[in-house]
C-alpha cells in the first residue's frame, strides 16, 4: 500500500485492552449499584466513546453516565491502563513501516493522557510522530472530529493517509474525512460491522495487514 501517513486506532488494533477496560467498566457500574458479573457482556465498551456507551447500554442520563465515566477512570488510571497487552507482531510491523519512511500516528477515542501512558509503558511510543486522543471533558471522543483535528494539526493530505481500525467508528471517521480505511478483523468489531461501512481494505489477521505493506 502506497500511503505515506498511517493512522492507527489503539484499542483492538495495536493492543488487547479487554481485561483493563471490562474490569474498569464493571467497577464503575458497581459504584452505581449496577452489578454485571460477566465481563464478556462488557466487551462492547471497547472502542466506542464511553459516555455514549454507558448512556445507551444502561439508559443513563448524561449526568449519571458522566458519574460512571469518572468512576471508570478512577480505576483505569491506576490499574486498568496496565491490564493490557500488545498484539503479537505489532512492534515489528511498526518498526518496518517506520523504516519504509512512513509517518505513523495514533488516533484513539481514549483520552490522550491515557493513550500516551499506554504507548510509553508498552514501549511502542517511539514509532509514532504524535498520539492523538480525546480530552477528559469529552472533546474529540468521536472519530470524525478526532481525525479532522489530526489532519488539520499535521497538515496531512487525506489522499495520502490511511486509517486502520477494528470498529465501525474508525471507518466512519476515515470516510467522512476523505481517507481510505482498513478494517482489521482481529480486534473487537465483527466482520459484519466492518464490512457494512465498505472499507477500502479488510484484513482478517495482523499477518494479512503486515503483508499488505510489502
Task: Give a verbal description of the structure.
The structure is a single chain. α1 (18-31) crosses α3 (62-76) and α2 packs across α3. This protein is an alpha/beta fold and 214 residues long. The protein has helices spanning 18-31, 50-58, 62-76, 90-99, 112-122, 143-154, 168-175, 191-195, 206-212, and strands spanning 5-8, 15-16, 85-86, 103-111, 130-134, 161-165, 180-184, 201-203. It is globular. The model has no long low-confidence stretch (mean pLDDT 97). It has two domains: 5-16 and 86-213, 3-Layer(aba) Sandwich (Rossmann fold), CATH 3.40.50; 17-82, Orthogonal Bundle (DNA polymerase, domain 1). It is built from nine helices and eight strands. 43% of the residues lie in helices and 16% in strands. The strands form two sheets. The chain has a six-stranded parallel beta sheet with strand order 5-4-1-6-7-8, sandwiched between helices. The chain has a two-stranded antiparallel sheet with strand order 2-3.
Q: What's the CATH architecture name of the largest domain?
A: 3-Layer(aba) Sandwich
Strand order of the largest sheet: 5-4-1-6-7-8
Assign a percent range to the helix content. 40-55%
Shape descriptor: globular
Q: Which consecutive residue ranges, at least 5 long each, have pLDDT under 50?
A: none
H and E string: EEHHHEHEHEHEHEHEH
Q: What does the radius of gyration come to?
A: 17 Å
Q: Mean pLDDT, nearest integer? A: 97
Highest-level CATH class of the largest domain:
Alpha Beta
Task: Identify the CATH homologous superfamily of the largest domain.
Answer: HAD superfamily/HAD-like
The biggest sheet amounts to:
6 strands, parallel
* Class by SSE composition: alpha/beta
Assembly status: single chain
How far the N terminus sits from the C terminus, by CA atoms, comes to 8 Å
* Portion in strands: 15-25%
* Total tally of structural domains: 2
- Alpha plus pi helix count: 9
The CATH topology name of the largest domain reads Rossmann fold
**Strand tally:** 8
Amino acid at each position: 500500500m502506497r500511503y505515506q501517513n498511517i493512522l492507527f486506532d489503539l484499542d483492538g488494533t495495536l493492543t488487547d485492552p479487554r481485561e483493563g477496560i471490562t474490569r474498569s467498566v464493571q467497577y464503575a457500574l458497581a459504584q452505581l449499584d449496577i452489578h454485571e458479573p460477566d465481563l464478556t457482556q462488557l466487551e462492547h465498551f471497547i472502542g466506542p466513546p464511553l459516555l455514549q456507551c454507558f448512556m445507551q447500554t444502561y439508559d443513563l442520563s448524561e449526568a449519571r453516565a458522566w458519574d460512571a465515566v469518572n468512576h471508570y477512570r478512577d480505576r483505569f488510571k491506576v490499574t486498568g491502563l496496565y491490564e493490557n497487552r500488545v498484539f503479537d507482531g505489532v512492534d515489528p510491523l511498526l518498526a518496518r513501516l517506520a523504516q519504509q519512511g512512513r509517518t505513523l500516528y495514533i488516533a484513539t477515542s481514549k483520552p490522550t493522557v491515557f493513550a500516551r501512558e499506554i504507548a510509553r509503558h508498552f514501549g511502542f511510543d517511539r514509532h509514532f510522530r504524535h498520539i492523538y486522543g480525546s480530552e477528559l471533558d469529552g472533546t474529540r471522543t468521536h472519530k470524525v472530529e478526532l481525525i479532522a483535528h489530526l489532519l488539520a494539526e499535521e497538515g496531512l493530505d487525506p489522499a495520502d493517509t490511511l486509517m486502520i481500525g477494528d470498529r465501525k467508528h474508525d471507518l466512519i471517521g476515515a470516510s467522512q474525512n476523505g481517507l481510505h480505511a482498513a478494517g482489521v478483523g482481529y480486534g473487537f468489531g465483527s466482520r459484519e460491522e466492518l464490512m457494512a461501512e465498505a472499507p477500502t481494505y479488510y484484513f482478517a489477521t495482523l499477518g494479512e495487514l503486515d503483508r499488505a505493506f510489502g
